[in-house]
Specification:
231 residues; alpha/beta; 35% helix; globular
């Protein structure tokens, strides 16, 4: 996807977009965020249709996300065909997609693949559900604490696979020397506290990080939707 107003021969930064849905539902074209990115930014977006649980449990989605990033990073001509610059890759995602974006950013660092930026919207980063926001927001609209546990149980049937795995829960991974980040959280969201805590970890590791807490908003409504609704 590219902005219609940009000449076809102009090469733009490449955004790899990972949709939400708890690793269980959703598809590449879901969500207003990528559409609003095209409205506000000059980028080429590749929305990744990764495999879903329970038919394809962890680590299928992670492997798909990583494979797409590695493909474009090592095949600049393939990126150029779609009008994208493989040397300027951004990883971005919402909810479960934020998990994949964060995990992909960590893998890129380990593989020596330069990532320009990571954008994590209302990200699902921890397998554990012991933060205050899980209690406070247990019955939030769109996403309840019970639903998040159902998603995790479908994605990771064997919790021991996830316990110390940054591929499963990026929150436990090494955050040193990562790409600059945007972390966006909503007030009424079980994932709120882990997003905030991850942003704090990034900042303590001297990773350039912008943290946005959308007070009064709920899971599923981001700054792009809010801007769109106010236009």
């Amino acid at each position: 996807m590219r902005p219609k107003v940009v000449p076809k021969d102009e090469v733009l930064p490449l955004v790899l977009w990972f949709h939400g849905g708890g690793m269980v539902v959703g598809k590449a074209i879901d969500g207003m965020i990528p559409m609003n990115m095209l409205h506000h930014m000059n980028v080429t977006i590749v929305s990744v249709n990764y495999r879903l649980a329970p038919e394809h449990p962890f680590p299928a989605a992670y492997h798909d996300a990583l494979s797409v990033m590695k493909y474009f990073a090592t095949n600049p001509e393939a990126a150029r065909i779609i009008g994208a610059d493989a040397s300027s890759i951004v990883v971005a995602g919402e909810s479960a997609g934020g998990n994949l974006a964060a995990g992909t950013a960590q893998a890129a660092r380990d593989l020596g693949i330069p990532i320009k930026f990571q954008a994590l919207f209302i990200p699902m980063l921890r397998h554990e559900s012991d933060t205050h926001s899980y209690v406070e927001n247990a019955n939030c609209p769109i996403l309840s604490a019970k639903t998040t546990r159902w998603f995790w149980d479908k994605y990771v049937p064997d919790p021991t696979q996830c316990r110390n795995s940054s591929k499963c829960q990026p929150f436990v991974g090494d955050v040193n020397d990562l790409a600059p980040a945007l972390v966006y959280t909503a007030s009424c969201d079980p994932f709120r506290d882990e997003g905030f805590q991850y942003a704090q970890r990034l900042k303590r590791a001297n990773v350039s990080t912008e943290y946005i807490a959308a007070h009064g908003s709920h899971f599923g409504v981001t700054m792009f939707e809010q801007h769109h609704l106010s236009d």
